[in-house]
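It is worth pausing here to work through a concrete case rather than discussing structure prediction in the abstract. The textbook approach is simple: state the sequence, then state the predicted structure, then interpret. We follow exactly that order.
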Amino acid sequence: MPVGHAARELIEKHPIIVFWFDGPMLKGRLVGLREERRTDVEALFELDADVELFSLTSARPFQPRTLASWQAEYDKRQAEQNPKTTFFTIQRLDDEAREALGSVGLWQIDLHNRSAHIGISLLPSVQGKGFGRDALDVICRFGFDVRGLERLSLETLETNGAMRAVAVACGFVEEGRLRSAAWYLGRRVDEVVYGLLADEWRAHQRPSDGG
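Step two, the predicted structure:
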């Protein structure tokens, strides 16, 4: 598709943004982060309809809900456009159908302190293939290089071993625990807090000398 002057200037300034198919997308090694679509709600409905998956990634108590209710919630979010929240849909980089694999984004964006929190979820069928790590790395690039933030935080339950491993692999530092902070499937568990600073992330991206 043709790229206008303003869009070309944006691409040159932030090369992780590429124009692909019919919209802008943030590009990683394996995945692309694109705009959320209403059809994604159905594609990712498994994450909201499964009690274990939902409880692992949400602070809200699980309630059985219809697809229509989740679509209505999506419509409301799109209408309100909260400036403190920016979320993307995760897709395979080489997928022309642009099927949704999960969701990732920034929430509680604080422009005064230049910080934000990261939220990420991925369909079980595509976990363990490097997509989660790549998506986390791309959203960090977006937060630090595009939005100009200085700190990103990520919180997860101690039982979420996969998420904790991905966070460490991307350079996040475990900063502490909120003891017995969450109720998860019949028992209390700790919430583990991770943080990553812009300088730490950039140093983590540079290849080591002599490597």
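Step three, interpretation. The chain has a mean pLDDT of 88. The radius of gyration is 17 Å.
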